[in-house]
């Protein structure tokens, strides 16, 4: 699609982001490895990405899944680092590491404190080119991957894509799942892995991207030191796009299973990302199903109420592509949905896709690209993508120019070329009681009379804190790096204002709040936001209710006016509340379809006997269905009169903000207070069955004190010691015993109570071994059988993750609101870092001995 720039040894460009200039430079080492450096001094962090031009599409079919398995195995020890020591080396310095395998590439991710950036390069080189590939470790990791395969069978979304993938990309390497197959994964040997690295991990096939508080010359010197001696065994392989076979007839696959909802993927073969049609397909995907203003969202969800959700995407890969729709809906609406979708697919009403909507799509796609620059990791990934796939990081400019040149005629052309019924490939996941066959769905694919849809109307911080009185607060942090503003308005309340019979009403109000005001309909609000490339959401918590917005600062006045309208004049029309109820009920059913979703839905009601923590946050289906418009209105009238905070971060227009705050301050005068009430349940074990699934999921939960406790620093370090790839649970239960793919811990705390939970997704029949594994780790902690380095690693992980999470404007705005909701000082987390750094090995033993007591523990299991 974009012209490649070849033969460039050194390229520099100044990228201007909100007044901050940063130089990006590309250097090619003598062996052909490309090094792309972006200096950015906003944060004391450095992001590293290593792209390798190999993935599942490059594999021998007999070794399907080897790219993914290799990505796992390079973390399992090298000639100088034992199993677990790779993750420990990075996390002990406060860094983060991960990796991902795709069809066309593998990428290794490391984010480091700036003072330790070079360690990322040293570890990358060591783990990739000096892995031991121990046979015992390989067998364990194969079992982990096989467990991951089973886990995918339990997840409707993953199972659906795997089903459609084989047909959509038939005759192409993309037809194979990235993770591979059971037989192919089992057959892979250590020698296969070594040969695969020699074949594909060559300098010419690799791109190193380093972004953050660094110097270009130092990065190039380090890259030469660690990667300069690598040799190429063959020329760089650049595959040509594969021609699209013209389908003879549509294809439908139907899979029945233990689902409560219907899940549908509908795909069409498309060209590669390099095609002249690729960008038009991307724009078309946004217009047909990219947001709540899109064609099929309006039609199928808003107007006809046939689906819970519908979206469309353009999956553009290096050699082939696909355009597809994803849909979820109730079983009794399948027939009406399918007929309606096919009618509009064959006779799209182009009068609803006009120049205004085209401009809106372009703005939002451009906005997505710009917002990637908010974090160092986003910049590194964006620059790497354009350099790796388009031949130059400068290709971003060409992309934006080409985007502006897309016309309605271009959209019509690609629609008529690619989105035709005879090219359709669909997969349905149906509940067992729905007796519809593939032939039935195929019989509906025929030319139907044209329909005319009903038209719808369209970080050095500069911070100020102002007490607004009556328990209200304003916090503003100026950051002009990007021309955006993030805002969070949070009230105390949420579920804590409800009776047990009203559980789910706060969530329902949050869903209905944005669906219209006295002046604007739901669709008009969506159009308003889309034309300003702005996001707005409402959410209810167990003790809070929040409105969050992110928008280009130039639209501040418009967004503040809309927020004022939503807060003071919501319409809560009966039809919109009804649609919100259907959406919430669908969400409940989807959680019940997923083992992990069910696990966490049941967690709080299982642990707590009374108070807001004891509720099913989404409510129960029958009760949600009975909620009335009056109940929603009454709840909002009560909720908005509780104390609130307005937290704003970014390139803040002070004048517009102050005008907004003054109006809200005058109209909302809180007089209510909330008490933190809770009571733990006496029942200590709950086992639920989810038939016809493959894995068991266990949560072992230990009650702890709340955030204000002096034990919190020790609990924080203890949790970080247990979690993560170099954490004790991962090392013992996954690396050493191979008991599951996913194993970790997490710490949840309110101001007055909390819990530390151990989680594992394990094989059926291995539940007792998993619990014994938990007990062994706890015994070792209580006896002090762990290294001092484990404590240091945990401290650094906590500090590193804190600063990484604060890169985005929204996270900083939300942090202030969350601290205020917990009655904590705004510097609580920064002071917590200081307290965490004081934690000793003895403190960990004391925390484990105090809180990891099996007589107080709760066990929640989801079994097949």
Task: Name the descriptors.
6-stranded mixed sheet; 42% helix; 22% strand; alpha+beta; single chain; 864 residues; 31 helices; globular
Q: Count the helices. How many? A: 31
Mean pLDDT: 89
Strand runs, count: 25
Sheet with most strands: 7 strands, mixed
Spans where pLDDT lies below 50 across 5 or more residues: 1-21, 447-460
Helicity level: 40-55%
Q: Determine Rg (CA atoms, Å).
A: 27 Å
Helix-and-strand structural type: alpha+beta
Q: Compute the separation of the termini in Å.
A: 48 Å
Q: What is the multimeric organization of the chains shown?
A: single chain
General shape: globular
- How do the strands of the widest beta sheet line up side by side? 1-2-3-7-4-6-5
Q: Strand-residue fraction?
A: 15-25%
Please render the helix and strand layout as text:
Blueprint: E1 10-17, E2 20-28, E3 34-39, E4 45-52, H1 66-73, H2 85-91, E5 96-101, E6 106-113, H3 117-129, H4 135-154, H5 156-168, H6 182-187, H7 190-200, E7 206-212, H8 216-227, E8 251-257, E9 262-270, H9 278-289, H10 295-303, E10 309-316, E11 321-329, H11 334-346, H12 355-371, H13 376-390, H14 395-404, H15 408-418, E12 425-431, H16 438-443, E13 462-469, E14 472-478, E15 484-492, H17 505-513, H18 522-531, E16 535-540, E17 544-552, H19 556-568, H20 574-593, H21 595-607, E18 608-610, H22 621-626, H23 629-639, E19 644-650, H24 654-667, E20 679-680, E21 685-689, E22 695-705, H25 712-722, H26 728-736, E23 740-749, E24 753-763, H27 767-782, H28 788-805, H29 809-821, H30 828-836, H31 841-851, E25 858-863
Helix pairs in contact: 2-28, 3-8, 9-12, 9-15, 17-20, 17-23, 19-24, 20-21, 25-28, 25-30, 25-31, 26-27
């Amino acid at each position: 699609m974009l012209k490649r720039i070849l033969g460039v040894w050194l390229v520099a460009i100044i990228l201007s982001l909100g007044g901050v200039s940063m130089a990006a430079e590309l250097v090619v080492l003598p062996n052909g490895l490309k090094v792309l450096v972006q200096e950015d001094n906003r944060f004391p962090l450095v992001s590293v990405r290593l792209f390798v031009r190999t993935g599942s599409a490059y594999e021998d079919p007999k070794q399907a899944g080897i790219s993914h398995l290799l990505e796992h195995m390079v973390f399992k020890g090298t000639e100088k680092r034992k199993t677990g020591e790779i993750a420990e080396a990075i996390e002990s310095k406060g860094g983060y590491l991960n990796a991902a395998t795709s069809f066309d590439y593998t990428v290794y991710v490391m984010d480091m404190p700036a003072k330790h950036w070079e360690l990322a390069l040293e570890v990358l080189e060591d783990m990739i080119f000096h892995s031991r590939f121990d046979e015992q470790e390989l067998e364990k990791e194969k079992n982990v991957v096989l467990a991951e395969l089973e886990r995918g069978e339990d997840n409707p979304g993953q199972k659906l894509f795997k089903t459609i993938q084989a047909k959509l990309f038939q005759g192409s390497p993309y037809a194979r799942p990235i993770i591979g197959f059971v037989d192919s994964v089992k057959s892979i040997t250590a020698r296969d892995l070594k040969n695969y690295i020699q074949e594909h991990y060559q300098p010419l096939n690799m791109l190193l991207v380093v972004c953050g508080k660094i110097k270009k010359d130092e990065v190039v010197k380090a890259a030469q030191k660690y990667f300069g001696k690598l040799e190429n065994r063959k020329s760089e392989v650049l595959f040509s796009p594969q021609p699209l076979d013209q389908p003879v007839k549509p294809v439908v696959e139907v899979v029945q299973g233990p689902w409560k909802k219907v899940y549908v993927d509908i795909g069409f073969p498309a060209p590669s990302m390099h095609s002249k049609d690729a960008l038009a397909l991307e724009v078309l995907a946004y217009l047909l199903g990219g947001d709540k203003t899109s064609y099929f969202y309006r039609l199928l969800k808003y107007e006809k109420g046939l689906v819970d959700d519908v979206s469309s995407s353009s999956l553009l890969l290096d050699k082939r592509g696909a355009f597809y729709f994803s849909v979820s809906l109730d079983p009794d609406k399948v027939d009406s949905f399918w007929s309606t979708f096919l009618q509009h697919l064959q006779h799209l009403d182009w009068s609803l896709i006009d120049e205004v909507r085209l401009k809106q799509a372009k703005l939002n796609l451009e906005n997505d690209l710009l917002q990637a620059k908010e974090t160092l990791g986003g910049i590194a990934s964006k620059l790497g993508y354009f350099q790796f796939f388009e031949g130059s990081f400068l290709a971003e400019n060409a992309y934006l120019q080409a985007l502006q040149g897309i016309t309605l005629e271009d959209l019509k052309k690609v629609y008529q070329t690619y989105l035709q019924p005879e090219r359709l490939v669909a997969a349905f996941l149906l509940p067992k009681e729905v007796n519809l066959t593939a032939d039935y769905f195929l019989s509906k694919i025929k030319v139907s009379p044209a329909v005319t849809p009903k038209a719808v109307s369209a970080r050095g911080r500069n911070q100020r804190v102002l007490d607004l009185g009556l328990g209200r607060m304003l916090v503003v942090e100026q950051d002009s790096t990007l021309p955006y503003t993030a805002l969070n308005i949070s009230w105390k309340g949420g579920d804590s204002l409800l009776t047990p019979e009203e559980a789910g009403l706060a969530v329902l109000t949050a869903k209905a709040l944005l669906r219209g005001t006295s002046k604007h309909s739901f669709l008009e609000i969506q159009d308003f936001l889309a034309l300003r490339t702005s996001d707005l959401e409402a959410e209810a918590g167990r003790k809070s209710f929040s409105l969050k917005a992110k928008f280009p600062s130039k639209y501040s006045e418009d967004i503040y006016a809309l927020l004022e309208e939503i807060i003071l004049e919501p319409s809560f029309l009966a039809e919109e509340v009804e649609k919100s109820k259907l959406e919430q009920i669908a969400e409940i059913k989807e959680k019940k379809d997923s083992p992990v979703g069910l696990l966490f839905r049941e967690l709080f009601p299982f642990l707590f006997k009374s108070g807001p923590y004891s509720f099913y946050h989404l409510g129960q289906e029958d009760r949600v269905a009975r909620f009335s418009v009056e109940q929603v209105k009454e709840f909002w009238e009560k909720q908005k009169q509780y104390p609130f905070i307005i937290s704003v971060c970014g390139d803040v227009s002070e004048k517009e903000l102050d005008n907004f705050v003054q109006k809200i301050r005058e109209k909302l005068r809180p007089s209510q207070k909330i008490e933190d009430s809770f009571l733990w349940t006496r029942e200590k074990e709950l086992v639920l069955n989810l038939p016809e699934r493959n894995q068991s999921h266990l949560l072992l939960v230990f009650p702890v004190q709340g955030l204000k406790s002096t034990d919190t620093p020790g609990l924080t370090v203890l949790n970080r010691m247990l979690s993560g790839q170099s954490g004790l649970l991962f090392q013992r239960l996954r690396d050493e015993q191979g008991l599951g793919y996913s194993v970790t811990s997490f710490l949840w705390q309110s101001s007055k109570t909390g819990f530390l939970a151990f989680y594992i997704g394990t094989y059926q029949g291995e539940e007792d071994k998993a619990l014994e594994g938990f007990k062994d780790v706890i015994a070792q902690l209580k006896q002090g059988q762990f290294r001092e380095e484990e404590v240091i690693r945990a401290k650094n992980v906590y500090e590193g993750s804190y600063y990484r999470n604060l890169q985005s404007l929204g996270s900083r705005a939300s942090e202030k609101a969350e601290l205020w909701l917990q009655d904590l000082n705004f510097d609580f987390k920064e002071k917590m870092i200081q307290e965490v750094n004081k934690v000793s090995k003895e403190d960990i033993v004391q925390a484990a001995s105090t809180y990891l007591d099996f007589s107080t523990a709760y066990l929640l299991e989801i079994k097949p």
